[in-house]
From TrEMBL:
Organism expressing this protein natively: Anaerovirgula multivorans
Keyword presence, DNA-binding: no
Alphabetic keyword roster: Membrane, Transmembrane, Transmembrane helix
Domain of life of the organism encoding this protein: Bacteria
Name listed for the protein in its UniProt record: Stage V sporulation protein AE
Transmembrane segments: 6-25, 32-49, 84-113
Matches recorded under InterPro entries: Spore_V_AE (IPR014204), SpoVA (IPR005562)
Amino acid sequence: MEKFIWAFIVGGGICVVGQISMDVFKLTPAHTMSGLVVLGAIFGGLGLYEPLVKFAGAGASVPISSFGNSLVSGAMMEYERNGIIGVLTGIFEVTSAGISSAIIFGFIAALIFKPKG
């Protein structure tokens, strides 16, 4: 039960950061989303995001900041295996399944449902 509470607190905290950036700093949702991805990448690069995921579970792995962490983790993993070229290939290798799924399911949804104009 305690794990669920921490997931809620950490995930909610990430969302609060995003909401504050839109309300106080008047950033657009696109800028806020990009900022959260960059923060996730920075924390991932510093080795701080994985311990947060282990601690908070879905509270840290579901928000968009997790995508930035995935990009950096893939790049670092491939860099160790293939050198500098691995930085480029690692980014695409780790995130390609999620991005491909989003494109495919979005396309299927567009075929099934009629968007309101």
